[in-house]
Amino acid sequence: MALKKIVENILIDTVRIYGFRSLRDVTVSLGRFTLLTGMNNAGKTSFLRALNLALGVDRRSVDADDFYAGATEGKDGVKQEIVIDVRIIPVEGEGKRTSNFSDEWNGTVLGDIVRFDGKTAFVGLRTRVVFDEAKNEYALKRYSLKIWRDGVAWHEPDEAVESVFTGKLDHLAVFYMNAQRDLVADLRNRASYFGKMLSRVTFGESREKWEQTLAQMNDEIVKASPELDHLSVELKNLSRPMGEDGCGVTLTPLTRKLKDLLKGVNVEVQDHGSEAFTLDHHGMGTRSWAALLAYRAYVSWVTKQTKQSEGLPYHPVLALEEPESHLHPNAQRQLCAQMAEMPGQLIVSTHSPYIAALAGLECIRHFTKAKSETSVRQVDVSGLGEEDIRRIRRDVLNTRGELLFARAVVLFEGETEEQALPIFAKQYFGQEPFALGVAMVNVGGYGNYKAFLRLVTGMGIPWLIFSDAETNVKPEVEKQAMGVTGGKIVFLPNGLDFEAHLLQSGYEDCIRSAFLELELPTEPHPTNRAAKEREAKGKTTAELGQWLDSNKTQAAPKVAEQIVSLPDKARRLPPKVKELFDELSDVLGVPRKWVF
């Protein structure tokens, strides 16, 4: 995603979180744009909420459920503390760290708490959540860090490390937007970004002129309508009981005050020359998108006005959940282009492979959760060449981005496996593989595993390879997987490919039945059926293998369906396929089983 250059010259480059929900102890590096991927309930939203807790502009509170589920309880059953560290560094336009903050930023409150790590400047802010026994509630306390301490005890309180910070961060703020955003709901909410923009509206010297125009329009509308004129005359009787000093009564079809006029502002959307409709008549995709654009309008305006009126910079940070909500793929891509123009920093959680494909490999942070604890990983691109990165993006992210959201990945190189393995997996597990969080990926040839392995191992996603064992295949696959951890290879036996393995395992009858089913028309003439049955029965093993190899896309699912429907339950899974799913069961942490 082509982002505009950073003009604020600072960056939140590291966030550390201790004890918040599933984030027992994580450190996440951030860039100008950071994409959070992973399965549901892996901790992505918790990370965004923790960042909002530390620096958000909204009212923030904490309850007992926000503490890490495995935390040790202290006095009176109160759980241990939450600690959130944020490190802010100076950068140049391309995002490279520099030695000191600009004079503009040193002129803000951040300039008072700048520290140096050697000769390099940083600002460290710590938010600590503790239980206030006197008030019987959780309290947020903020500190500035004197040093950025690494190690397992980074979160421990220490006067040599932290000092109380009570300053107001007017020039750096986190804006959190959840997946339920809706501009229709924001139109009448003064606290929304749309409402904040309206509250800033001024008319200057034109106010009196416009209000005079509104008064004149009201008078003309009433006079032009006999009904309104009659109603206006009758309502004037309201002032009689009040005497000469009572109130006057005026009928106003339009408001006379500009500030009241703004309360009725609405948004209309016209699509391809059709009649324009207000936003509440449109779908949630349009409404969610509009809410995001209202945010962009607000922060870009505040950034501009802060610079003009105060001569100081402004650095907004958008913590955004699922920008793809309710949007089709092309709209998701267009939205990404618009997000790239937003000022400040973007930290975005997503389940969209389309958005993941647009992000650079260095932008992606992968969240996984084992039991109650989240881990965060990223691909180390420092050891990859430009061609390696380009190939991962081309061969993996652009075509198989769904594996970024998987609990485990099964890789293979053939079309037969692509068609048949999901059917066998459903037979083994009793449900579709995607329901288990398993991505089954055809890498498109035995020479293409390397890019996939680099990505999934960098993200910490467990992997299995199901590979042919032909003379030229096995050594190459082993070479590509050499030194790669986190997975296992299941090779087919005796130098066979998958089609030959099915034949050698005694499934000729299933392949003949699949041949007959595919070759016969829907309602065959008895003579044609008899001829085809003789043809199927007369085919040799070699001929069946050749037919299966030549018709992989159509034949593979038919053969798999024939196999899993066999009366003999012991034959419903080929031996090596069962071995593969036994290994997958171990990876997923579920008991090995075979559901009939």
Polypeptide structure, described:
By secondary structure, this protein is an alpha/beta fold. The chain has 3 domains: 10-182 and 290-373, P-loop containing nucleotide triphosphate hydrolases (Rossmann fold), CATH 3.40.50.300; 195-265, no CATH class; 387-588, no CATH class. Helix content is 37%, strand content 19%. A hairpin with a 7-residue loop joins strand 10 and strand 11 (277-278). The longest helix has 27 residues, at 284-310. The two termini are 47 Å apart. 36% of the residues are buried.
Spans of at least 5 consecutive residues with low confidence = 74-78
Helical run tally: 20
Largest beta-sheet details: 7 strands, antiparallel
* Gyration radius from CA atoms, angstroms: 32 Å
What is the percentage of strand-forming residues? 15-25%
Structural class: alpha/beta
Helix-strand blueprint:
Blueprint: E1 10-20, E2 23-29, E3 33-38, H1 44-55, E4 82-90, H2 103-106, E5 115-117, E6 120-132, E7 137-145, E8 162-164, E9 172-177, H3 183-186, H4 193-199, H5 206-224, H6 226-235, H7 258-261, E10 268-269, E11 277-278, H8 284-310, E12 315-321, H9 329-339, E13 345-349, H10 353-358, E14 364-370, E15 373-377, H11 386-400, E16 408-412, H12 415-429, E17 438-442, H13 449-458, E18 463-467, H14 474-481, E19 487-491, H15 498-504, H16 508-519, H17 526-538, H18 541-550, H19 552-564, H20 575-588
Helix pairs in contact: 4-8, 5-6, 11-13, 12-19, 16-17, 16-18, 16-19
